[in-house]
Structures
1.
Amino acid sequence: MVLHLEKRNIFFVIKRSFIHNHTNSLQNLFTIVESSQAQIEVKKSIFWAFVWPVKTEEEANELIRLNKNLKATHNCFSYRIGYKSPFISHSFDDGEPRGSAGKPILNAIQSENMSNICCLVIRKYGGTNLGIGPLSRTYETVTKLCLQNANKIILQSEKEIKIILFDRQYIGLEI
């Protein structure tokens, strides 16, 4: 969009929504409208996944604090926040083998091209070790199921563009 304006001593503020993503390509970045959940059982272990839309790390950490189950064996989580790269992201394995829970949750969020998302997966251990590969796939699968159950929207940030015009000058602005 190109704006050509001719006015005298006028201050304009134009608001326009911009769609961003981490690759700056034509793909859209998504978030969810409201919370969602999913559950799966693998070898008597039960995995509950919960996702919420968030805008800040503080909001994500507060949701995790309020919703984790202290009686569960593991409360693993990841969140990804931002409108473009670099995103703010964090993941936590909570006693699972390193990289086998939090990272797969984050991978599921990224593979769905989503941001401003917080996901908590609660595991109740069923007595059988799954192994790192199957365990990682289970965390990623339950997260993807949860995200697929959610109502998605295109993530947009609102930017303000200020245009100041000087006496009888043309100003062209590309947006």
Note: The two ends are 5 Å apart (CA to CA).
2.
Amino acid sequence: WTKSYFREWLYNAKWFHKHHLWMTYESVITGLFPFFVTITVIRLFYVGVWNIVLILVTIQLVGLVKSIYACFLRRNPIMIFMSVYSMLYMTSLLPAKYWAILTINKSGWGTSGRKKIVTNFIPLVPLIAWFLILGGGLAYSIYREVQIHVPNIDRLRLIYIGVGLG
């Protein structure tokens, strides 16, 4: 579905000038939203460990607030599971959007590999790339935190931490 969404979005971009200004604005924002999210997440993952914690907590809190609102609106406590969507979006759907853009010219169905589940590992490529990018950012942030804070820790505390880690 993502591939067809981007295909239609690019096709309709030719007629943005004929649409109402608000509709054009909304279309541009929804089309560019994955790019904004990606740039923000990658930047925060390469800046520091506490920024990673901040973004993960913020994403989960926003999802939780929206799901609590949905619980009250629908009067159904099962809607609390809607908060999981934010993590699903960040871990799986966002890289899938880039895969859809990269394979936009392929006319085959993206789900045709369901018949050959063991041999169709190509859809894992964007997920692996995404986790490598974020894992690199996490490793870099941890390295920077260690470089900044370890020289300031006294020797006794380092021995204590080393014994605690095993």
Note: The first helix runs from residue 2 to 12.
3.
Amino acid sequence: MNKVAALVLALAAGASAFVAPRAAVTRAPALAAVEDYLGADVETAGLWDPFGFTKDGEAAMYRRRCSEIKHGRIAQLAVIGFIMGDHFTLPGKLAAFSADINFSDVPAGMGALTAVPPLGWAQIILFAGLMETGPFKQDPKKAPGDIASFSWWVRYDDKAVRDKKLTSELKNGRLAMMAIMGMMVQEEVTGQTLVNQFQSGNINPFPHL
């Protein structure tokens, strides 16, 4: 009986996390800070923090928001690359020194991970690191994700328009992170890229069932 009661209480506590909180008399500083972040409650109609990340302080939340935006941007590029790999390849040689490989020899999807030689991956990682610590380094004095220092970069003076654009980026990034994971898992399950699946009519996520 005690186990059943404990289970009911645990389920009730978990369900309460999905309910938007009512106006409280006082709020902890960390909670007030996280609710000021765009997109903090955009999918949940209220703050939802089952793991208590908001209790770690404003500095930790700033770092996590920077990481979320960065991963979302990378995921959006990954989704485009995952799809375009079946439609377009660069001309010329991918590796002319360590191996005689053309860009057209690199398959789309997960197959590219093993087709690109180690030296190629080293160059990719080095380039990403240089960008991360150079022109695209996050300035802690700026808003999370504000890494553009180019004079031609589009800026929005209207706060409402800017918030709408930034919220759209967050939502698209979150969707892309889920999408690229789903596309990679689906390819491992079916042995086909997303484009191959649609072309062959094999859109069943569980083809063996």
Note: Residues 66 and 144 are 5 Å apart (CA to CA).
4.
Amino acid sequence: MTISILIILTLSSTTLPQSTALSSNTALSPTHSISVSQTFSELLHNTQFRTQHWQTSPLLLQPSQTQIRGQFTVDDIADNFASQFIVAGRGTFNEKTGGWNMAAVGSTPRPGASFEDAKVQFSDVQSALSKTSGTVVINSAGAYMPSLAKVCEECLDCFGLPINMNLYITAAGQVTSAPPHTDKQDVFVVQTQ
């Protein structure tokens, strides 16, 4: 399956800390292969980023392919849906109002009485990706997916600011995954696939 995976990290603050020492807990675990601490630590200590880009203007970085690209893939997503209870939505665009809404992924409520019966399955995600607006959104992905929780921890260690992570999974060939918009927070977009 050809898809794009975007991890959206949002920081809520008006100022960056001058310096934050990285925690000794940032070592990679067997369930965590993606690391953003080096990239974000370099940004934090970059005067040009702090004065010209933070809360002012966009900045496109091309991190090393080995740092991020391919470190969180569709297989990781499938594994997480198999083992975790994940709530997901599919972005839908309303041509008349120009608004972006969320539709449920999977049946709601799911039939069955058990935890396993109620879980959204990866096949539900695949089905949602085949729709006209094929972007699946997992809000607060770091709360559901252990490997992404570590990324949130790294960002917290680096910036010392509250962090949230959303995950956008977009099918190949989609013209727009989300309509143009602004966010109230500072946003880092990390494309892993």
Note: Residues 62 and 112 are 46 Å apart (CA to CA).
